[in-house]
Amino acid sequence: MLDAFARAEADGKLAEAGKRACGELLALWPRVEGRAGCLTPVGADQHRAIARRMAGREASVFAANGRVRASTSATSRTRESMEAFCGELLRCYPDLPVVQTTDAALNPYSAASGIPTADDLKVKSPEAEWRPEFDRFCRERLAPQRLLRRLFTDSAYAAGLCDPVAFERDFFYLAIHFAGCGLDIDWLRHFTSDELTALAECDAYTFYQEKGPSDRTSDRTWALSAHILRGVLADAESAAAEGVAADLRFGHDGCIMSLLTLMQADGWTERTAVPAEAARMWDVSQIPMACNLQWIFYRPVSGSGEILVRVLLNEAPLRLPVTDATGLCPWPVMKGYLESRCAAAFAVLQEED
Fold first, then answer.
1. How far apart are CA 171 and CA 186, in angstroms?
2. Cα–Cα distances in angstroms (integers) from residue 169 to residues 124, 240, 305, in the given order
3. Burial class for 156, CB neighbours closer than 10 Å (0-12, 13-18, 19+)
4. Between 202 and 215, the higher pLDDT residue
5. What's the confidence (pLDDT) of residue 228?
6. Terminus-to-terminus CA distance in the chain, angstroms?
7. Within 10 Å of residue 142's Cβ, how many Cβ atoms?
8. Confidence of residue 353 (pLDDT cuts 50, 70, 90)
9. β pairing state of 67-72 and 98-102
């Protein structure tokens, strides 16, 4: 993007809107160069806010001084997320014992975890079998000429400078990332609402192919997340006996998407081979920055009776086939259901190996 704008500026082909966008990008570049993949200040603040809400809402758990276990995948931003979250918990409860570790399996889609096969990694690559269809969908759905006319004085020149569809998608990604970085740069103003809808559909389609129950890819896309869910179930069993107040895991948005499919959460299991349908049904707006999945356990006050568990997505009830409308379910029922889902997922993984 920077090269395209710089060349057009040198050739005198930028319209006023393009000159302003070029200036904003040139001014920003020294602040962001080499920092791709780092946690933004906005992201750190969001994790601190979630920690404060959790500390206040579940005060009886943390006030009892039960220790906290926290683990992160092997990337810098998830480690920074964990540190921001745990640091805020400690500000709320200074005597709270917190143990922090790294667990590469929290991103079972990463080569660094040692879990995915070569075929699994290929699904996310530019050489993936679904990419040609995706490219056709983008070219049918997007009409970048209006944006090019807004930014450049000569749209034919612009089309020779860059791939128009790729340029529009890159411009869109920068626009939404500016907001996530807390930068006062509004590039979304350059798009119409219809254009934003189409761009969001293209974005959702990529996640559907990489993590969802797509007819174009194997079920390994969502089954790999069973490595995460199996750890959740194992640790939940040991936590009560060992006096653990909370098990915290810091990973990736795509992993939560695949977990929702694995658990058969409401709205995350529909299958289709039609790109437009996939984009509509795969609602990635539910996976924002600092997206979080919480399992809250409730012991009977009397000391006898069933333990209950409530599942929350972004601190709102998440409906699974075994929960009520508030996301609540007896733990033995939930455990049995999720163990069956893990078994089904591992059967898929063994079958495809």
1. 11
2. 17, 48, 54
3. exposed
4. 202
5. 97
6. 40
7. 20
8. low
9. parallel
Q: How many domains does the chain have?
A: 2
Percent of the chain past pLDDT 90, that is, above it, reads 78
Q: Which domain holds residue 268?
A: 41-119+220-352
C-alpha 212/C-alpha 268 separation (Å) is: 8
**Rounded CA separation 255/260 (Å):** 9
State how far the Cα of 270 lies from the Cα of 281, in Å rounded to an integer. 7
Within-domain flag for 247: yes
Same domain, 15 and 52: no
pLDDT digits (tens, 9 = 90+) for 226-245: 999 999 999 998 887 788 99
| Contact yes or no for 265/318 (Cβ under 8 A) | yes
Let me know whether 157 and 15 are in one domain: yes
Residue 205: both structure tokens together: 């389609």
Answer yes or no: are the C-beta atoms of 145 and 137 closer than 8 Å.
no
Does residue 100 register a pLDDT over 80? yes
Question: Using one digit for the tens of pLDDT, what is the confidence trace for 258-275?
Answer: 999 999 998 899 998 888
Residue indicated by tokens 């480690």: 79
Instruction: Band the pLDDT of 65: cuts 50, 70, 90.
Output: low
